[in-house]
Design brief:
CATH class: Mainly Alpha
Distance between the termini: 96 Å
Mean pLDDT: 88
CATH superfamily: Cytochrome P450
Strand order of the largest sheet: 1-2-7-4
Structural class: alpha+beta
Shape: globular
Number of helices: 19
Radius of gyration: 25 Å
Helix content: 55-70%
């Protein structure tokens, strides 16, 4: 009896202790949140930039944070500003970008703060690590993505998705007034394509019924909530929420758990089957060199993140711009008719796409104005001096801003806000690239995007298939997009469009 009473008292004591610990954590979190609120009312730095950022007063004049940064960077005589409350130097100066991505590359890694933000989702994947781990993954990825067989496989995957799902879906809504959300369609398309390419898995998001995918939804949630961590006034906010497993951090944990479970199951099944020459997806090829399944999962999920949202973002912006600039759309059609013939059937080959310089120029011009990744940050390992004279203290976050860089008059001329693909063409009509540090949409230097050419082929394939077969009209007129917070540029509320079948005869 005494033994039972002792056990009961011990159990009650443990319950009380755990309850008190939870209450203590909750109180600490509340106090910290209150301090953050006070800080927002009266920031430690009272300069105009910091006051506007903390109070969000910039929203009275600008629809997007990236537009406000662009405004500040335009006014700066160096093309660089300092947001003191974030300990963040932001630059649109190409010389500074070259310094960060090439000259002093080793001094500007992703850094621990960035790795912590995406660590739960990406783990030790290539986009979340530095040093030897990054070098190993990059070397392996470079060998695989550069192979003819895997590029041919990617082209096959994209072509199949366009022919069997994307075009039939758009044909099914032709003439319907309610149309569809083109951004959602492109996200589904790119998710199906990248899952096939990365995992050898078909989630079927782009089937005619537009089914809900538990995997896609979990991946969306995990990406969005991971990005929201970066917007917290302090990392302590999301760290405490994660510790207590509450709010957005609880939803993030549940979403990542689902993503990891599916990825682990795919890896397990492939391990049981064993390597096969007939399997060209990245996972099958990486499995040959990597025995650690958790490490393997992190690597492939990283490629999933990079290949899905960036392509969908670029395509969404591209068709929004075409709707505002029908002359560019018509020029793309004329060029494709010269190269492919006037019929709208069939997909363009590699060789045919290489001959379409205007299409390449239009895509580059689109991403100059609307880069899929609007900014990228590094963390200085040691004190440094940027080429424009800006002093960088150790531990400072240094951000280069491709969105703003594409809107600098001193870099692109007085027509920098115009969508004009001709700026990329020589007098002979040949595409002419610019300094990558002036146009770091695909990064530059040591970290230049390995999937750049594959992404461009995917975007060209989609653009040609749709431009040649459909007239796509954006609902809501000429209002500029408003972006939702995230790792990539996503239009808030989507992009509602009406689809009409194109009459070839009437446009010739």
């Amino acid at each position: 009896m005494d033994s039972g009473s002792s056990s009961s008292c011990l159990f009650q004591s443990i319950q009380i202790t755990l309850f008190l610990l939870f209450i203590s954590f909750a109180l600490v979190f509340c106090v910290f949140s209150f301090l953050i609120y006070i800080f927002r009312l009266k920031p430690l730095c009272d300069c105009d930039v910091c006051t506007a950022y903390v109070s969000s007063s910039w929203t009275k004049e600008f629809r997007n944070l990236c537009d406000w940064y662009t405004h500040l960077l335009r006014k700066s005589h160096t093309g660089t500003i300092h947001v003191h409350v974030l300990n963040n130097v932001v630059t649109a100066n190409p010389d500074n970008v070259k310094h960060m991505l090439r000259t002093r590359f080793d001094n500007y890694p992703k850094g621990k703060p960035f790795s912590a933000i995406l660590g739960d989702l990406l783990g030790r994947g290539i986009f979340n690590v530095d040093g030897d781990s990054w070098k190993f993954q990059r070397k392996m990825a470079s060998l695989e993505l550069g192979s003819v067989s895997i590029r041919a496989y990617a082209f096959e995957v994209v072509g199949s998705e366009i022919t069997n799902r994307l075009v039939p879906l758009l044909s099914s809504v032709c003439g319907k007034e309610d149309g569809l959300d083109l951004q959602d369609v492109f996200r589904r398309f790119s998710f199906d394509s990248i899952c096939k390419f990365s995992f050898g898995l078909d989630p079927g998001c782009l089937k005619l019924s537009l089914p809900a995918s538990e995997f896609a939804e979990a991946f969306d949630t995990a990406s969005r909530l991971s990005a929201e961590r970066a917007m917290s006034p302090s990392s302590l906010v999301w760290r405490i929420k994660r510790l207590l497993n509450i709010g957005s951090e609880r939803r993030l944990r549940e979403a990542i758990k689902l993503v990891n479970a599916l990825a682990d199951e795919v890896i397990k099944q492939k391990r049981e089957v064993g390597p096969s020459k007939g399997h060209n997806d990245l996972l099958s090829r990486f499995m040959i060199n990597i025995d650690d399944d958790r490490y393997l999962r992190d690597i492939v999920v990283s490629f999933l993140l990079a290949g899905r949202d960036t392509v969908a973002s670029a395509l969404t912006s591209f068709f929004w711009l075409l709707s505002q600039n029908p002359k560019v759309r018509d020029a793309i059609r004329e060029e494709s008719d010269r190269v492919m013939g006037p019929t709208t059937d069939g997909l363009a080959s590699f060789d045919q796409m290489r001959k379409m310089h205007y299409l390449q120029a239009a895509l580059y011009e689109c991403m100059r104005l609307y880069p899929p990744v609007q900014f990228d940050s590094k963390f200085a390992q040691d004190d440094d001096l940027l080429p424009d004279g800006t002093w960088i203290k150790k531990g400072t976050r240094v951000t280069y801003h491709p969105y703003a860089m594409g809107r600098m008059e001193w870099s692109w001329g007085p027509d920098c806000l115009e969508f004009r693909p001709e700026r990329w063409l020589s007098k002979d009509g040949v595409f002419s690239p610019v300094n990558p540090y002036k146009y770091p949409v695909f990064q530059a230097g040591v970290r230049v995007c390995l999937g750049k050419e594959m992404a461009l082929v995917e975007m060209k394939s989609v653009a040609l298939a749709l431009v040649r077969q459909f007239d796509i009209l954006v609902a809501g007129g000429h209002r500029r997009p408003q972006f939702a917070p995230g790792l990539t540029a996503t239009i808030r509320g989507g992009l509602r469009v009406v689809i009409e079948e194109r009459s070839v005869a009437s446009t010739r």
